[in-house]
Amino acid sequence: MSPLISVIAPIFNEGAGVDRFVARLADVLGDAALDYELVLVDDGSSDDSWSRIAHCALVDPRVRGLRLSRNFGKEAALLAGLEHAAGDAVVVIDSDLQHPPSAIPAMVRRWQDGAHVVEAVKRNRAGQGLGNRLGSRLFNRAFTRLTQVDLVDATDFRLLGRPAVEALRRMPEHSTFFRGTSSWIGFTRATVEVDIDHREGGASRWTLRGLFRLAVNGLTSFTSAPLHMVTLAGLAFAVFAVVLGVQTLVRWISGGSVAGFTTVILLLLVTGTFVLIGLGVIGEYLARIHDEVRARPRYLVQERAGAPDSAERRVVEQRAER
Ligand code: UDP
Ligand code: MG
After folding, report:
1. Whose CA is nearest to atom 23 of ligand 1?
2. Which ligand is nearest to the CA of 136?
3. What per-residue confidence (pLDDT) applies to 50?
4. Rounded mean pLDDT for each run of 10 residues along the chain, 322 residues in total
5. Ligand lying closest to the C-alpha of residue 73
6. 248 partner at 20 to 30 Å CA-CA among 46, 98, 187, 277?
7. pLDDT given for residue 68 in this prediction
8. 201: CA distance to ligand 2 center in Å?
9. Is 143 in the pocket of ligand 1 (CB under 6 A)?
10. 75 lines ligand 1 (CB under 6 A)
11. 99 C-alpha to center of ligand 2: Å?
12. What is the pTM assigned to this prediction?
């Protein structure tokens, strides 16, 4: 029996893009004669995405739809997909065709050759503006430096074998960062190179604010380096204060006058800024702890479409066995 491949795609206000995506996937995976199911996760779209998904699920038994009760964000949508996928391997892909579905057969081959996680890395990034590219480059570099989890040229487009999926599902954290967690789990890895296409239809669904939150979540969930930096900066300030104090003392003893109202103001500003930033950094971690402690569900499913959820059936069976 050939293995079942689950393809998970988050969908947020993609409209006509849904049909295009499902058709492309059916083409590519059909040509490669792969046995697959497609799990489309509607992340609280406000357009007709859900009715299109429901329609696709109706005409194609391999398509299943999952509708979240509101917009929970891409990360939560991915998680919902992972938890409802039944395949022996799971492919996570964007639904805007920026991730070329044509790479999936190659990823599956790598998986069959023994890799547990197959990452698509970008050869280029046609679909991004200069600012966006610089921003993500900077973030990825910083993240890689701070956390030892390599994000340079990484994408969310990856294949995970069943053990890797189970490992991910065991991570209970509230604000997830798929690109980070799916690297953190380890497992035998392989990569395939892909060209990131221009977006087909519409603009990026990310807002600057959303991206900033993603960056902060990603960093705070993987490293406490910013906290240590606050400590280090505090130490630097202490050293500076001692040096300045000694110098002033020497000058006072040697009879020089000690003036400098401006210096006082400047120093106050500098220390004030530092204290506020330090507090902010601590606050970010505190907010995360708060989120985790509340332990609210990471997403809520409102509706499903398509064949009964085999992943769910399996969960029920497992519970019954216990
Ligand atoms: N997406 C989502 N929820 C959101 C934002 C985006 O499910 O809140 C989906 C979107 O439909 C697309 C994928 O995530 O399939 C990537 O989004 P986008 O193309 O806007 O991001 P970019 O390619 O600019 O990183
Ligand atoms: Mg995109």
Report:
1. 204
2. 1
3. 92
4. 88 88 89 88 91 89 91 90 90 88 90 90 67 76 75 81 90 80 84 76 72 80 82 84 82 74 77 84 87 87 77 54 58
5. 1
6. 277
7. 94
8. 10
9. no
10. no
11. 8
12. 0.75
Q: What pLDDT sits at residue 269?
A: 79
12 lines ligand 1 (CB under 6 A): yes
> What is the distance, to the nearest Å, from the Cα of residue 232 to the centroid of all Cα atoms in its chain?
29
Amino acid at the residue 76: A
Classify domain 5-221+296-321 by CATH number. Answer: 3.90.550.10
Give the position, in ligand 1's atom list, of the atom nearest the Cα of 9. Answer: 15
φ and ψ at residue 164, rounded to 5 degrees = -65, -40
Ligand 2 mean position, distance from CA 180 (Å): 18
CA atoms 92, 115, 34, 97: torsion sign: positive
Report pLDDT for 261.
73
The tokens for 296 are: 């609210």
**Ligand 1, atom nearest to 12 Cα:** 11
Of 89, 67, 86, the C-alpha closest to 77 is: 67
Q: What's residue 30's pLDDT?
A: 85
